[in-house]
């Protein structure tokens, strides 16, 4: 295990800059995800760290050792890393044991050592008893476990994951998320994980680095990014958010504000970042769908108002409702039991602390906790 450090990474293809001045650390034993839409530069960054891609500028260190910088480019096999790809790359002509043992054999380790390490790795990923099977005899989830065992058996300094669960069906993908996190915690392995799935990143990560257009937008814990988005992009990409444009009516000394919403009611909210508080001007009000609460008869409170239910979609334990509040449209997630019907008028409330205010028109640099 080792700390990863990336400083000022730039990757360009002709006139196109794919990664622009990206800098971050992954501490020893930490699980960090690079999250963002397709084309944001997350996989290119990962491939540079692995040594599979060159860079125009920047320095990459693993365990304090410079593996990529001006005039220095350590080959992938000498970086002390292993990578789990989207494709499992399980060789069909080899048994599970032979697949997992491949890296150890290329290092010419003694047969007894190989046998012991492979047996332990298969046990760790829940495949003890599968050593003699071939890749064609395994399910997708079992093949993914083989790829994981092969990645950890050589005790690398750093584990890299390139969307390794995206080829699995939804149920198996959910189970593998928990298994992968449990494995990483048990081994204490420094890990960098690439995904476009915000739920996956939220569930698995100690920290998330959000990327867009080759740049870091925000970095922090899953809770930080969810509760304190620093930009419209961060608010929309993580979670199910309503983004409403408004103007500050008045400020309070605690960072909260009353905001007028065109075509709708005034609403109380709080700025997500202490450094973004402004006394006046346009703002965005970010309201998570699950933060819209239905009031019972006689209940009231701040940010309470009547809403017409335009549509209702059933999602098992909850329903997603499209509400009309004056001229505003608002998505809400409400309990399915006793849910309203389309055409109903209901009274709802949003806690002021759940209304996240973001300066409108601001294009912030990457925010760090």
UniProtKB/TrEMBL annotation:
User: What family does this belong to?
Assistant: Belongs to the ABC transporter superfamily.
- What are the annotated GO cellular component locations? ATP-binding cassette (ABC) transporter complex, substrate-binding subunit-containing
The taxonomic lineage of its organism, from the top, reads: Bacteria, Pseudomonadati, Pseudomonadota, Alphaproteobacteria, Rhodospirillales
What GO MF terms are annotated?
A: ABC-type transporter activity; ATP binding; ATP hydrolysis activity
Q: Does the keyword Transport apply?
A: yes
Organism, scientific name? Inquilinus limosus MP06
* All residue ranges annotated as the ABC transporter domain in the record: 4-238
InterPro entries (UniProt xref)? AAA+_ATPase (IPR003593), ABC_transporter-like_ATP-bd (IPR003439), ABC_transporter-like_CS (IPR017871), ABC_transpr_MalK/UgpC-like (IPR047641), Mo/tungstate-bd_C_term_dom (IPR008995), P-loop_NTPase (IPR027417), Transp-assoc_OB_typ2 (IPR013611)
Pfam families, alphabetized: ABC_tran, TOBE_2
Q: Does the keyword Isomerase apply?
A: no
Recorded protein name is ABC transporter domain-containing protein
Q: Report keywords, A-Z.
A: ATP-binding, Nucleotide-binding, Transport
């Amino acid at each position: 295990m080792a700390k990863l450090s990336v400083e000022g990474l730039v990757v360009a293809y002709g006139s196109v800059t794919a990664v622009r001045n990206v800098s971050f650390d992954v501490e020893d034993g930490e699980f960090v995800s690079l999250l963002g839409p397709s084309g944001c530069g997350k996989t290119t960054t990962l491939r540079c760290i692995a040594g599979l891609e060159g860079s125009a500028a920047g320095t990459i260190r693993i365990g304090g050792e410079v593996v990529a910088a001006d005039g220095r480019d350590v080959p992938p096999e000498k970086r002390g890393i292993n990578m789990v790809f989207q494709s499992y790359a399980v060789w069909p002509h080899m048994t599970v044991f032979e697949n997992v043992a491949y890296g150890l054999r290329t290092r010419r380790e003694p047969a007894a050592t190989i046998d012991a390490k492979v047996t332990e790795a298969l046990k760790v990923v829940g495949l003890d008893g599968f050593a003699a099977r071939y890749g064609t005899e395994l399910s997708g989830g079992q093949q993914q476990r083989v790829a994981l065992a092969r990645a950890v058996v050589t005790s690398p300094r750093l584990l890299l994951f390139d969307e390794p669960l995206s080829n699995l069906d939804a149920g198996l993908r959910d189970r593998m998320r928990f298994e992968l996190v449990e494995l990483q915690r048990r081994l204490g392995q420094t890990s960098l994980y690439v995904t476009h799935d915000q739920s996956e990143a939220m569930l698995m990560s100690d920290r998330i680095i959000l990327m867009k257009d080759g740049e870091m937008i925000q970095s922090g814990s899953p809770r930080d990014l969810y509760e304190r988005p620093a930009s419209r992009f961060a608010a929309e990409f993580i979670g199910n958010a309503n983004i409403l444009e408004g103007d500050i009516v008045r400020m309070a000394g605690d960072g909260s504000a009353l905001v007028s919403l065109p075509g709708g009611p005034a609403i109380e909210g709080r700025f997500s970042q202490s450094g973004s508080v402004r006394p006046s001007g346009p703002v965005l009000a970010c309201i998570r769908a699950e933060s819209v609460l239905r009031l019972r008869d006689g209940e009231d409170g701040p940010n309470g108002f009547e809403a017409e239910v335009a549509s209702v979609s059933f999602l098992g334990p909850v329903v997603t409702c499209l509400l009309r509040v004056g001229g505003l449209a608002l998505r809400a997630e409400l309990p399915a039991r006793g849910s309203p019907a389309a055409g109903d008028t209901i009274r709802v409330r949003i806690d002021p602390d759940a209304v996240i205010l973001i300066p409108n028109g601001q294009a912030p640099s990457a925010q760090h906790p």
